Each structure stands twice: as C-alpha cells, then as structure tokens.
Amino acid sequence: MYAPSTMPAETRKKALALPGDEGVFFFITADMAMFALFFLVFMVGQAQAPDIYRASRAALDPTLGLLNTLILATSGWLMVRAVDAARRERWSAARRNVIAAALVGLGFAVTKAFEYHAKISHGITLNTNEFFTYYYAFTGLHFFHFVIGVLVLAITQAKLAAPEGEKTRIWLESAAAYWHMVDLLWMVLFPMLYLAGGTA
Amino acid sequence: MKLSSTLAYGIIAALSISSFALFESQGHTLILALAVFAIALVKIATILNGFMHLEWQHRPFAQVLTGWLVVVGAVLAGGMFALPWNS
Amino acid sequence: MASAPMTEDNSYGAWKFCAWNGMIFMAVFMYFWGWLGHNLPPFAGDAPASEVAGYFRNHSDAVRLGMVTSMTFAVSYAVWGIAIGKVMDYAIGRGHILTDLQVWGAGLTVVPILVSSSFWLLGSYRPEALDDTTLQMIYDAAWLLIDLAYAVTSVQMFGLGFGFLRDKRAEPFFPKWVCWYSIWVGFMFIAECFMPFFKGGAFNRSGILNFWIEFSIFFAYAPIITWYTLKAIGRIRVENGD
C-alpha cells in the first residue's frame, strides 16, 4: 500500500530539490550581493563625473565584450547539458560536456588577456582615472572568479571520470551553479562598462 | 514553467547580439541605455530559469536572486537617469 | 569517532573561555585599535601628512593606550582559533589537516596585528620629535601590513569552512551557510590587493569597498563563529555525558 504513494513523493521531492548544494548557493548569493554593490559604486561615480566615464568608455572595444558574452553563454549551455546528462547517469557524456565547457570558457581568458594587454600597452592602467580603476578592479575580480571556476571544472571532470552517483551529481550541479554566476555577472558588467551610459 | 536549456541559450545569444547591434547602430540615448540593461536583466532571468533551473519552490534562493534582479535593475536604471543626455 | 580519548577531556570551562576570546578580541580590536587608534575608519591614503601627524601628536596617549592594549590582546585571536580547532577535532576527527590550517591561520593572524600595532605605537612614542612625513610613513606601513596580511587569515577561514563541511553529523556543529560564509570571506579578502594602488576612492584603505565592506564582513565573522563554537562545545558536553 505504501510503495505507490511513497515512490512519487520521492520522485517529486527530487524534482523540487535545489540543484546543487545550498551552501554553494549561499556563497553565490553573498558574491552577487557584493557585485550589486560594485554596480552601485560605479553608477554613483559615473553620475558624478559622466564626461570622464564617457570619454574612457570610448577607449573600450565592445566587440570583444560581446565575444566574451557569447563565449560564456555557450560555455554555460554546455554545463547545462553536462548536468542533464549526469541526471540520466550518463557520466561520460557529462564529462565530455564539462571539458567542452572549460575549453570554450578558456576563450574568455584569451580575449581578456588580449584586451588587458592592448589597454596597458596604450598606457591605460588601474590609476588612469576612476572609470579605469573600476574597469580593471571589477573585471579583474570577475576574472578571478572565472579562474576559480575553470579550476572547479577541472576537478569536476576528474570526479566525473570516476562517478559516485548522487554525490558527484550534486558536486556537478554546484559547480554549474557557480559557473552560471560567473556568466550572469558578466551580463551586467558588459553593458555597464562597455555600452550603456554613452561614449564621448 | 521549465525553459529548455537550448532555447534559453538561443534567447541569450540572440538578445546579446541584437542589443549590441541596436546600440552600435542607433547611438547613445537614455532609452537605448535603459533598453540594453533591460535586455541584460532578461538574459540573467533566463540564466536563472533556463540554466540554473532555479524555480519558485527553491526558496529562499529563488526569491533572494529575484530580489537581486530587482535591486540591480533599480541601481542600473537610477544610474542612467542620473546622467545628462543630449536631446 | 574515537570516543575513548575524547571523554578524558572535560575542561569545558577553559574551552569555553578560549572560545569567548573571539569576542574579547573583537571588542578590544574595535575600541582600542579602532577608536583610540583612529583606525575606524582610517585616514584616507590621500589625507595630508600634517593631519595624520597632528593626530599622533595631539592624541599620543590615546594611541599608546590603544596599541598597548591591542598588542596585549592580539594573541586572543590565536586562543580563539585553538578553541575552534578542538571543536573541529570532534567534528571531523583528530589530526585533520584542515584543522591544522585553521589553527595555524588563526595563530599567524596574530603576527600582522601585533607588528602593525607596534608601528602605530612607534608613531605615538615620540611624535613631537618626528616630522610629518615620517609619521605618515609609519601610519602607511602599518596599514599596508595589516591589509595585505589578509591571506594568512584566509587560510583560517578556508580551513574552518571546508573543515566543518566534512562534519557528517545529522545536524552539523556549523550550518552549511556558516561554512560557506567563512569560505566566501576568505575569498573576498583578495580585494585587499587593490589597496596599495590607491590613495583615494573606493579601493583606498578607507574606501567603501576596501574598508567598510571588507572590515564589516570580517567583523561579522568572529561573532558568528564564536556563537556556533560555544553551541558546539555545549553539545559535545551533552554527548560526552559530562
């Protein structure tokens, strides 16, 4: 009598469960709150010196920003495919997708390195003006998150090579949630720094 | 409603390219700046929903992150209204 | 878990006292180091040397008292770390490397606090005989040291966070969010790396990001950890039937 009613309940519970680990989500929430504050600081600074911000923004190349947006979105999508595969216990497919996500994601580092190098060789540094302070600091901290993310993906693919069921799935979902956070923070950083607010 | 991840990816990519193209061709006005941020927030909502699969039952995180979207949206819009714009 | 050697220890009073040292440290740090030393918030990086020097000259006794007390109680941070480490012994078994990292991280945090406090004390010792820029340099040196020593404390935070995440109890001593808060604070401390590059703005030593946010998340850290440490000690006492 109990079996038919408990089975759907279990399945239902699983379907409703938070993807990944709630502690990781706490970390993500705290991190996103910090970035929200960064956005506020930037907006206040921009309102106080719009001309400097506009002139500085003109020196950025938004095409590179767009490229990085597409790189991160593609990498994020591959991570979703990895999670979907892991939920069906297709571990090697999950691993392939994680490796692909990391490899595509590395394109972000290439673009960023190219971009930073171009700026620095034109004498634009952290101390050029307030706009560039925030540009380097916020994209730099975001890049630091990205690097940690790539390391997490590297560990994740190793775990997927010798999967331990539920435990590995939760790890993968947590890693994916973190990776999506890196992606979505860029979705604000890109328009905020490169596009909206005007250029002079 | 569960968004398929491929559809979510298509939406994010299409929105990224179109907001960029729109911005490049139409110049810099308040309306366009607000539109660019609105599109960014739609993309983030799509990531939360279609990539992270964070749905309403995942309280408190779903609520907190939705709140984050609202707060960040207000900060970005407020920042744009605070700027001087031509015409 | 090896319960036999654990039950031999029943000095819960001393253990709790050590845990309370986290709060003693914070109270001393905020009032004596922070308030009397004019470090809450500090003078901005671009404050004129005469302003910094004037403070040392006009309030030399306050700074001396602040820093003498700060140096005396700096070690309470290590004492606190040892109390946390003992809870970790119960949570994840004796001799775990993450416990060692937590204890060493807390212990080594004492060093930059002690040394930077001695710099401020130095500035207040004979400020009338020193010129403005020398006093400013002393103040700068102290701030550069205390901010850039962040990684030492990050080690404690990572050890604690990742350590208590391994606690397999049905109701772990430290909830997951506290563990992840610890990891996050250790992680966000990296923003201190920007501090030497700025004399004004959000990232200078008195700025909104580098001071107000970074120090607030640190100031919230000790009370949260102390609360759960004391609760854990109480639970261990009940578990051991003492």
Task: Please provide a written account of the structure.
The complex is a heterotrimer of chains A (200), B (87) and C (242). Chain A has 200 residues and is an all-alpha fold. Chain A has helices at 2-16, 22-48, 50-57, 62-87, 91-121, 130-161, 166-195. In chain A, helix 2 crosses helix 3 (50-57), helix 2 packs parallel to helix 7 (166-195) and helix 6 packs antiparallel against helix 7 (166-195). Chain A is elongated. Chain B is an all-alpha fold and 87 residues long. Chain C is elongated, with a radius of gyration of 20 Å. Chain C is 74% helix and 0% strand. In chain C, helix 4 (60-73) runs antiparallel to helix 6 (97-125) and helix 8 (150-164) runs antiparallel to helix 9. Chain C has 242 residues and is an all-alpha fold. Chains in contact: A-B, A-C. The A-B interface holds A 16, 18-19, 22, 25, 29, 32-33, 36, 39-40, 42-44, 46-47, 50, 62, 66, 69-70, 73-74, 76-77, 79-81, 84, 176-177, 180, 183-184, 187-188, 190-192, 195-199 and B 5-6, 8-9, 12-13, 16-17, 19-20, 23-24, 28, 32-34, 36-37, 39-40, 43-44, 47-48, 50-54, 57-58, 61, 64-65, 68, 71-72, 75-76, 78-80, 82-85.
Shape of chain C: elongated
How far is the N terminus from the C terminus of chain A? Answer: 73 Å
- Please tally the β strands of chain A and state the result: 0
N-to-C SSE string of chain C, H for helix and E for strand: HHHHHHHHHH
CATH topology of chain A: Four Helix Bundle (Hemerythrin (Met), subunit A)
Global structural class of chain C: mainly alpha
Classified by CATH, the class of chain A is Mainly Alpha
Q: What's the number of helices of chain A?
A: 7
Low-confidence stretches of chain C: 1-5
- Count the domains of chain C: 1
Low-confidence stretches of chain A: 1-7
What Rg of chain A is obtained from the alpha carbons, in whole angstroms?
A: 20 Å
Strand content of chain A: under 5%
Largest interface: A-B, 44 and 46 residues
Count structural domains of chain A. 1
GO cellular component, one term (chain A): plasma membrane
Subcellular location (chain A): Cell membrane; Membrane
Main location (chain A): membrane
Keywords (chain A): Membrane, Transmembrane, Transmembrane helix
